[in-house]
Write a structure and sequence with these properties.
alpha/beta, five-stranded parallel beta sheet, four-stranded antiparallel beta sheet, 35 helices, 30 strands, 46% helix, globular, binds zinc ion
Length: 975
């Protein structure tokens, strides 16, 4: 049946009803609290794939959950047309780039005949927007589509113009000469959206300290210029090519690759001649600060594509240098006349660091157990030591005027002093490289003159951004440090390009605002977007002439600044409409939860925080961000080259919307990547179809609303209540995997046990149906955010009025929690398992099974032990004395003392949770529990069953088993 189940019919049926009832259209309602959810709007230069489904489904689950919790929930969607990626993609397509053509036809399944129609950026955008929107509807996202827009709409462009003019007035836009990540091929700055794998390039700064030999400069690239006092030698890579170059009027020796790097960074570089690195070996250079002469030695670890290929060696404080020097000392290939030079080198200690010896580099190499220059742990050892010395190190007496300074202060001072005498230069590099542009070229750092920047380096702005972040919920919380890190390292970031669709910089129209700059406050635009279509008669004139929509309008509706009269007068829009927009904005803003995948933390999501923090008053600052992990496909990362990317709509058609929704969420919590597989999807299909089938059996029949519940019924309802409680707590933190596990699996197991316990009676008595129906109804409610179509079907089949997506999330009812019932069932379950074990071990097929519940006096001791056990100070001997102080116990004598010793020991070894659980269920009547379950045991074990209590007058106990009975563990006799 699951294979033949018609998912499409089910989905269409409910999607139509939702649309018809407009259940996802949210308007301000002062009687209800609001909840505003957004997910990063998609970039339509490709179809969405199954990986995208995770972020959007999570946003939808969150929206649906809050709707059911009574929040007036808004979940809108727009489309991001602007920026270089669409442009780049259509360009490559129009050049018939074979890789793109293959991706479009093989992976995306677009017929070749349609490709011509996509070669123009806007047409490509329209095509994929249409496709993405259909997918979002087909998977059942609860989006208010009245608010849809694209970022090239004339009024959006006007909105962005307003935003940028505001930033410019605030002094947050700068023009100047700054390093940017750059594609030499496109001759344009690159950001996340322009790179393969969507990586935001991070720019790192290092220093070129100028060592010298006969007037020629050897610029060593370092992050730690203050360690110049510890330099013992220079490293160069003997196998690399080096050049002597003319740089800004000086003669430099650098490796071949550094030439381009320097040229990109505003240096005039002229190559004089090229030679192999080994020609430099064993010569000597002079330290610009200490004037000491030191040798040039071979270092294989010197990377040709980083820095200048000239590295200063500080073996006392740099693990790499220490390790390289150690290895060099035992290198047999060193020429005989150089062996002495190397052997004479001793590390120099120049930073004092508490907890370390004179030579921290040596200490840390030993601590990590580093085995050689290629050891991967060397990187971590280096990072650890650098950070320790930076924060806690003190410069020693051999560091001249810097002695006594902290490393942090000394670094600044040395840079300043060396700059004054022209002995240091700056070098910028891609810190998280290598990064490749979408065009296939390696991204470099380029210093651009007269480029426009957003100044994220502004300290006041950073402070505001931190303040904003501090008041936000970040899910998972582990991600918060990444946000803090990004806020700290961000500096001037190029905000305009010369290619791509988008809004022109209002004051310099040659430039177009790029994609990560025009997408940071658009959540506010969703409010406006509704009115643009609702009041189109009013707004259509502005579409022709957007400039007529004056700043006063935006200032009033979004910032509450200026007067409504000015906005009305300057725009000619009626007061009623302006007031309605302002009210709606004030109602829905701020965004309560913004959803995205984790890759946007270091760029978009942090920019979002920055801009909201400065533009909007504090009560409009965003309240939360979810940054989830990715989706793996059958255990592997999705990639175009692996061709394991499956378009979302294809996935929906194949697996059904609900199985797909659950499938991308089920295997991990937010922090981790989930793993989607066909096996998983089909097992979810089966489970969901099974639930629909069960609900049909329960049917629409009316059941009596009041009756006396058996212990078993109470157990089932208690389990349900427990599930609701756990699922609600998990849902609040979007621990969706846990919710799925509780609702779809654990609760199902409980229902299965309940039905097994009922046996053939199960569907004959209406009252039983009532319990099952109640469970099923609650389950439909809890499944509604996750698998809304199936939940509707169940809800409807059970005869409920209205739609489950509008129903309330089930409430925890403390009255349903029934510890005694839970204990009773756990005893029965445990006893059934124990009996099964015995039968298996002995191979017996008994005619009769006898259970002996423990004697009342044992229960009394056990209760005493539970109460006593919390006090670990007291000795077991004291407990036994306390028990035996009782006259009744003294009459029982030795067995009582023996059991007292045993029970106190058991209680002390018991976990806290179990002890608490048992303490609460202290009034169990074990014999009664067994008597009520006797039929069940008979049925399960296919034997006669007798129940006795130890000490009963006429007890049947031929082998004297009864005395072994203990609370929670009856004695068992078979014959
Ligand atoms: Zn490029």
């Amino acid at each position: 049946m699951p294979a033949k189940f018609d998912w499409r019919a089910l989905e269409k049926k409910w999607q139509k009803k939702w649309a018809w009832a407009k259940v996802y259209e949210a308007d301000p309602d002062p009687r209800k609290p609001k909840y505003f959810v957004t997910a990063a709007y998609p970039y339509p230069n490709s179809p969405q794939h199954i990986g995208h489904a995770r972020t959007y489904t999570l946003a939808d689950v969150n929206a649906r959950y809050h709707r059911m919790k009574g929040f007036n929930t808004l979940f809108p969607m727009g489309f991001h047309y602007t920026g270089a990626p669409l442009f780049a993609m259509s360009k490559r397509l129009s050049q018939d780039d074979p890789e793109i053509v293959r991706t479009f036809t093989n992976v995306y399944g677009i017929p070749r005949s349609k490709l011509d129609g996509l070669k123009e950026p806007r047409r490509m955008a329209e095509y994929f927007r249409d496709d993405i929107k259909k997918g979002m509807i087909e998977i059942g996202f609860s989006v208010d589509w009245r608010r849809e827009f694209t970022t090239t709409d004339p009024l959006y462009t006007r909105f962005i113009t307003w935003h940028f003019e505001w930033l410019n007035r605030k002094g947050l836009i700068t023009r100047g000469t700054h390093p940017v990540a750059w594609c030499p091929n496109d001759r344009n700055p690159v950001g996340t959206v322009d790179t393969q794998g969507d990586i935001e390039p991070e720019i790192g700064e290092s220093y070129l300290v100028k060592f010298e030999r006969n007037g020629v400069i050897y610029p060593t690239a370092t992050l730690r210029p203050e360690t110049i006092f510890g330099v013992t030698n220079i490293w160069i890579n003997p196998d690399a090519q080096y050049v002597r170059v003319h740089v800004d009027g000086e003669q430099w020796v650098v490796n071949r690759e550094a030439v381009e790097t320097l040229q990109h960074q505003n240096h005039t570089v002229k190559i004089e001649h090229e030679f192999a690195g080994k020609n430099l070996l064993w010569k000597s250079v002079t330290n610009p600060v200490t004037n000491v002469t030191i040798p040039i030695l071979p270092g294989q670890f010197v990377e040709p594509d980083a820095g200048t290929g000239v590295v200063m060696s500080v073996p006392g404080h740099a693990p790499y240098d220490y390790q390289a020097l150690t290895e060099l000392k035992s290198d047999a290939t060193i020429p005989a006349d150089s062996v002495q030079t190397i052997n004479d080198i001793r590390p120099i200690s120049m930073i004092r660091l508490d907890g370390f010896s004179e030579y921290p580099a040596e200490d840390i190499i030993k601590k990590f157990g580093i085995t050689g220059q290629k050891d991967v742990r060397l990187e971590q050892a280096t990072k650890d030591l650098y950070s320790k010395e930076f924060h806690n190190g003190i410069m020693k007496d051999n560091t001249q005027i810097y002695a006594g300074l902290t490393v942090e202060k000394a670094r600044q001072a040395i840079i300043e002093d060396l700059s004054k005498i022209g002995k240091v230069a700056r070098l910028y590099e891609i810190k998280n490289g290598p990064i490749t542009c979408r065009c296939g070229t390696k991204v470099v750092v380029h210093i651009v003159d007269n480029q426009w920047f957003i100044n994220y380096g502004d300290p006041e702005w950073k402070k505001l951004a931190h303040q904003c972040l501090d008041q936000m919920t970040i899910l998972p919380e582990e991600r918060r440090s990444e946000f803090n890190y990004t806020i700290d390292w961000l500096r001037e970031r190029a905000c305009a390009r010369k290619v791509g669709l988008g809004t022109r910089l209002p004051w310099d129209k040659e430039w177009t605002i790029e994609a990560l700059s025009d997408s940071v406050i658009y959540m506010a635009y969703y409010v406006l977007a509704k009115y643009l279509s609702k009041e189109w008669v009013t707004f259509k004139k502005f579409e022709r002439d957007p400039d007529k929509l004056s700043d006063s309008f935006f200032n009033y509706v979004f910032l509450g600044q200026g007067s409504i009269e000015d906005a009305v007068m300057e725009t000619g829009i009626s007061k009623r409409i302006v007031e309605a927009i302002r009210k709606e904005f004030a109602y829905f803003y701020p965004v309560d939860m913004r959803h995205s995948a984790k890759d946007l933390v270091s760029n978009h999501l942090t920019f979002y925080i920055f801009h909201h923090a400065t533009l909007f008053p504090q009560d409009r600052w965003p309240k939360g961000i979810v940054a989830n992990g990715f989706v793996l496909m059958e255990g592997a990362k999705m990639s175009k080259s692996l061709e394991n990317i499956r378009p979302l709509r294809e996935g929906i058609a194949k697996f059904g919307a609900d199985p797909l929704r659950i499938g991308v969420l089920a295997t991990a919590e937010l922090n981790q990547d989930t793993d989607f597989s066909e096996t998983l999807a089909s097992s979810i299909q089966e489970r969901l179809v099974n639930l629909i089938r069960q609900s049909r059996k329960l049917g629409r029949q009316k059941v009596p609303s009041k009756r006396n519940y058996s212990i078993l019924d109470r157990w089932m309802l208690s389990r349900l209540n427990n599930t609701i409680e756990t699922a609600t707590i998990a849902m609040e933190r979007l621990r969706v995997r846990e919710v799925i596990n509780m609702v779809l699996y654990q609760l199902d197991n409980d229902v299965a046990w309940y039905q097994r316990r009922l046996g053939p009676r199960k569907l004959k008595v209406d009252g039983r149906n009532q319990v099952l129906k109640r469970v099923m109804e609650a389950k439909a409610r809890m499944l509604a955010p996750l698998s809304p179509h199936v939940a509707e079907e169940i809800w409807n089949t059970l005869g409920n009025k209205g739609m489950v997506v509008e129903a309330e999330w089930p409430a925890v009812e403390s009255g349903l929690s029934d510890n005694a019932a839970e204990q009773a069932e756990s005893i029965i379950r445990q006893t059934l398992e124990d009996t099964g074990e015995i039968l298996k071990a002995t191979g017996l097929t008994p005619k009769l099974i006898v259970y002996y519940a423990a004697a009342p006096w044992k229960w009394r001791i056990y209760r005493q032990a539970l109460a006593y056990g919390s006090d670990k100070e007291e000795r077991p001997g004291d407990f036994i004395k306390q028990v035996m102080a009782d006259l009744g116990m003294r009459e029982i004598g030795e067995p009582a003392a023996h059991y007292a010793a045993k029970s106190i020991q058991q209680v002390r070894q018991m976990g806290e949770a179990l002890r608490k659980f048992r303490k609460e269920g202290i009034d169990l009547n074990e014999k009664k529990i067994f008597v009520e379950a006797a039929d069940f045991f008979k049925r399960e074990l296919k034997a006669d069953v007798q129940i006795w209590q130890e000490g009963d007058d006429e007890v049947y106990d031929p082998t004297g088993r009864a005395k072994f009975a203990e609370p929670y563990r009856p004695a068992i006799f078979l014959e």
